[in-house]
Design brief:
heterodimer; A: about 250 residues; alpha+beta; OB fold (Dihydrolipoamide Acetyltransferase, E2P); 2 domains; five-stranded mixed β-barrel; disordered C terminus; B: about 190 residues; mainly alpha; Arc Repressor Mutant, subunit A; about 70% helix
Amino acid sequence: MKNDNFVQDILKTIQEKNIKPKAKWEFMIKNWLILLVGLIFLIIGGLAFSVIIYLLKNNDWDLRMQIGHSLISFVLLSLPYLWLVFLIIFIAIIYYDFKYSKKGYKYSWKIVVGFTVLISLILGILLYNIGMGQAIENTLTKKIPIYQKMMQHRSDMWQRPEKGILPGTILKVESDKLFILKDLRNKEWNVHLEADFIPTRVLIQPGEKVKVMGEEIDKNSFRAVQIRPLFGPPERLKGQVKGIHLPLRSK
Amino acid sequence: MPHNEICENKTDEELVKLTLESQDFYIHLMQRYEQKLLRYIQRISNFDQDESEDLLQETFIKVFENLNDFDKDLKFSSWIYRITHNKVIDHFRKSKRRPDKILWEDNGELINNIMSEFDLEKEMDDKINKKEILNNIKKLDFKYKEVLELRFLEDKSYKEISDILKKPEGTVATLISRAKKQFHKEYEKR
C-alpha cells in the first residue's frame, strides 16, 4: 500500500460521509420483488400453456387426412406460434429473474429452464382443466382483432371447399335448411342443410364462426353434412338464443 | 484501533455482526482483506497501484453499505471476492475496456499445482521449461484464466469459485476442464 493508513482513511471517509449499511428491509423488498416477478410470470406462462393445450386439443385432428396434409405439415400448420413465442419470452423472463435471485446462480440454465417449463406445463394443465385456456382464447378472438389476424394461419389451412371443408362466418340464416356463409377469403356461399345432415351442438346464427363439412355443389353452393365450430368445442349455450340450435349428435 | 485482541480470534462472520453494531470494527475486516484483494484486483485487471487502490476503496465502501445483504450461507471471503470481482468488471465496462490479461507470477508452487491439475506430471521431462507452461496459460481465453487464477493463485475451492463468479459449480468444473483441453492444444503446438 502506498498509504500506510489506507483502511483507517476508508473508515474516516465512511464516518465523514455518514455512510451507513443499507437497511435489511431494502434487501428483503428487492428479494421479494424478484420472487414476485418470478411467480407472476410463472402464472402467465401457465396461462399461455393452457391456451396452447386448448388450441392443440381442439384442432380437429380427425380431419387431417381429409384436407390432405401429412402429419408433420398438419402439426406445423396447427402450432400456435404466437403463444409459443409468448411462452419462450415468459420462460426467458423467469430464467433471468431466477438468475438474479440470491441462489439462482447455483443452478445451470438447463435445470432452471427445465423446471420452469415443467411447472408452467403442470400449471397450464390445471388452468386448462378449469377452462382458462378456452376463456382466454375466446376473449382474445372476440375482443382483439389483431389477435385473430395473428392466428389466421391456423384457420387458413381449413379453407378447402374442394376437399369438402368450408370455414367461415355465418352471415344470415335464411331458413332451417339454408344459411349464407362468408368464407375466409370473403366469398359468400349458400350452405344447404339436407336430409343427411348430422346434427351437432353448434349454434347457427349470424356471426358464428364455423367449419362446414360436406360437399361443394357449385361455385357458390355447399351441401353441409356436419358443422363444427371453427376452433374448439361448441360454447355452452346460455339462455334464449336466436337461430337454429342443433343438438350434439350422441355417439 | 478498537478491540485488537478480541478481534484477532473472531471469524469474518462474527466481525460482520460486530461491524453492524459498531462501524469501528470494520477496520479489522478491511485489514484482513486489503492485501489479498489488492493483489486480486491487480492480477485480474492489470491496473497500476493507484487505480487498484481506488478500486479497492470503492469496494470496501460498497461492502460496508451492503453488509446487511451478506448471505450467511456463503463464506465472507467468497462474498467480498464476488463484490471485488464485480467492481473490476464494472470498472472495465465504464472505461469501455475489456479484461484480457491476468498477472501470473513465476511461482514454483503455482506451476506444480497447475501441472498436477492438468495431468502434466507424466508428460513432463527435463526438456520442458516450466516458464513455457506459464506462457501457455497466458494464451488461454480470459474466462478460463479467471477461473484458473481463483483456483491456483487465490487457492479457492470449486464451491468458492462458484460463489465468487456466480456460476454453477458444474460450469466452474467445465471451464477448468476446457482450459485444460485448450492448454493441451497449445502445448502440442510447440
